[in-house]
Amino acid sequence: MTNAIRLLVCVAALLISHAGIADSLMDVYESALRSDPLLREAEATRMAALEAKPQARGILLPQIVANASFQNSKASGSSQTNAPGGGFFTSLFETDNDVTSWDIQLRQSIFRWDQWVALKQADKQVARADIDYKAAAQDLMARVAAAFFNVLAAEDTLKTEQAAKEAIGRQLEQAQKRFEVGLIAITDVQEAQAAWDQAVAVEITAKRTLANEKEVLREITGEYPESLSAPKKEIPLLNPEPANADEWVEVALQRNLALMSSDIGVEISRDNISIARTGHYPTLDLIASRSDRDTKGLRSISIEPFPLPPLTPADSQSVSDSITLQLQIPIYSGGATSSRVRQAVYQHRAAKEQLERVARQTERETRDAYLGVISDIARVKALRQAFSSSQTALEATEAGFEVGTRTTVDVLDARRKLFIAEAAYLRSRYDYIVNVLRLKLSAGTLNANDLAEVDSWLK
């Protein structure tokens, strides 16, 4: 019996220990890799784009087409024919034919400039697809980190608001007792009650915010987070390296994946202009074909007034081979070709403007993320000091309240400031971490090792 109890205790301890394990940032990221719809969509889009190369190459190779048919036809009637010396005579006929035919054709393009341009363009489309997929993978890292720390921030806010409500509740209870013995006025009780009501409302909002942030993370990973690892009490506050915004911008303009994709997009749109212009170019094709026609039929012919004789066989078979060198020179297409050229020119212009827009956006985001890291380091330090000062101020206010030099309102206000300072301090640490990753994302250097480094800062 004793051994059974010990076994149950060990199992229970193991289950409790396992249940207490929080998901790390890398755990959540690995779940997102398996489940995130955006990444899987990007992967499918990439695989589809990779087919552009074999399709463009296939058009340059011989095209072979085979056709086969079977036809049954019956006909009867009469025809009139002029007779020598004047007049005419009437012929009667009746036929019943079964025709079997087949043909096979080989077409090999000799000169079609648009096909060669399309082949060169396919390489760029494949390269762009690879870059877009890598960009989606980097974006997933940033989205996971942002959602992860937003959940932690929401949990911290909820805990802070619940602690504030509990403290205000104790303050309200204490104020009611003091009022009952005549130590304070009824207004102090009313102030405490108003603070309690406000704390309840704020807690409800905090619960809703937490639920929404968990939904955002579930949207990425496909599952609700139960417990997430929080940052350690002390995390390294590292300045960006290199410590110069211009150098980060220079790296971003060379390695940012969205910018690289837009740059290739400009080249693809330029190729589209060349393809559209080939509508004015001649084409040369080699066509080789063989056909076979086999007729199994019956035929009867007579001249009036003689009746039709019985049907007699009328079979035939023919086989033909041909080799053709076909030259086509487009002369006029109703203006459609010129219109397609103009359209491609405008699309190329739009692609160039998009490239400029993405370049400016990349520079702005990189500078903003760099300044965000720098300011967040100072902000974390300042808010940590503000939190410590708020704790000291609350202790002094509570001591003053005990001796009658401070009111309930003073205590409630000091306690509220402490909770606000705590929430702001915790949030600033999350903002710092997210901005570190944002800076690397803008520069195009973000990878899984960066997430692993951040993961080492967690409990």
Provide a quick synopsis of the model:
With 459 residues, this protein is α+β, with helices and mostly antiparallel strands. 65% of the residues lie in helices and 17% in strands.
CATH class of the largest domain: Mainly Alpha
Number of domains: 2
SSE string, helix = H, strand = E?
A: HHHHEEHHHHEEEHHH
CATH H-level homologous superfamily name of the largest domain: Outer membrane efflux proteins (OEP)
Strand content: 15-25%
Instruction: Compute the CA-based radius of gyration.
Output: 41 Å
Q: For the record, give the distance between the C-alpha atoms at the N and C termini, rounded to a whole number.
A: 39 Å
Question: Which regions are unreliable across 5 or more consecutive residues at pLDDT < 50?
Answer: 1-19
Mean pLDDT: 87
What is the helix tally?
A: 11
Which structural class fits the helix and strand makeup?
A: alpha+beta
**Proportion of residues in helical segments:** 55-70%
Q: Write down how many β-strands occur, each being a DSSP E stretch of 2 or more residues.
A: 5
Outline type:
elongated
CATH architecture of the largest domain: Up-down Bundle
CATH topology of the largest domain: the name is Outer membrane efflux proteins (OEP)
Descriptive overview:
It contains eleven helices and five strands. It is an alpha+beta fold. Helix 2 (about 25-35) crosses helix 5 (about 115-180), helix 4 (about 50-60) runs antiparallel to helix 5 and helix 8 (about 255-275) runs antiparallel to helix 9 (about 335-405). The protein folds into two domains: about 20-60 and about 110-280 and about 335-455, Outer membrane efflux proteins (OEP) (Up-down Bundle), CATH 1.20.1600; about 65-110 and about 280-330, no CATH class. The protein starts with a helix and ends with a helix. The chain has helices spanning about 1-20, 25-35, 35-50, 50-60, 115-180, 185-220, 245-255, 255-275, 335-405, 410-445, 450-455, and strands spanning about 65-80, 90-110, 285-305, 310-315, 315-330.
